Sequence to fold (152 residues):
Amino acid sequence: MRVGIASDHGGFELKALLSVALKGAGHEIVDFGAKELDPEDDYSDFVVSMARAVASGKVSRGLAICESGVGACIAANKVAGVRAALIADSFSAHQGVEDDNMNIMCLGGGVTGHALAWDLVQTFISANFKEIERFQRRLAKIADLEGNVPGD
Fold:
């Protein structure tokens, strides 16, 4: 799978570890930054570019990481077509994809341990959307809110 990844300084270390693990598992990684550790950078500068790539289909899924994961999640969800969630448990990592077609998983580099983060990423990447009518209906309602109706 082609996976986009982005972080600010608060998620820099976790992004590096997850990038190596994903490559080792055979995934193609597109790194949207930060490319170097800068304590003054802003998550939005990297996460929004990655979110746009997910929304346009240039990458299949995305990982957005900041200190808590909250800011990265807020920024990602401002992009039409993105369904991002802050994930801290394996049930939500797969259920968010299966039921809600989540396409960006957000993590907190300062609050999520490396082993748990890797487990969550593997769960997220391996999950598939269940194209059940009620799930599609819900997503269409969300797309209407964005002004991005499917099929337009």
Q: What stands out?
A: Helices lie at 12-24, 43-56, 70-76, 90-100, 114-126, 133-146.
